[in-house]
């Protein structure tokens, strides 16, 4: 009764899985950058939500105010991860047609 439609749907699902796997590989190579403190802290993350680098400008280092430096690093790391997640969601929605698949992204 549903044979033809079911087979077509299964092919579409398989194509989507293949496309998503390929996209995940590509996103692992793409990066996003976030800064804090007017650029004093720069963090680069990839599409796998991995922090790749942290740059701290010398003028951001004040031995009398380590807490501020910690806050700036934390803010830049969190922003870079948020941007990474946003990039992944945006790219994956192109494959899924905007349908959010729980646990995927």
UniProtKB/TrEMBL annotation:
Superkingdom of source: Bacteria
Subcellular location field: Cytoplasm, Nucleoid
Sections of the chain in a coiled coil: 6-33
GO cellular component: bacterial nucleoid; cytosol
Keywords, in A-Z order: Coiled coil, Cytoplasm, DNA-binding
HAMAP family: DNA_YbaB_EbfC
Subunit architecture: Homodimer.
Protein name, entry field: Nucleoid-associated protein F9B85_06915
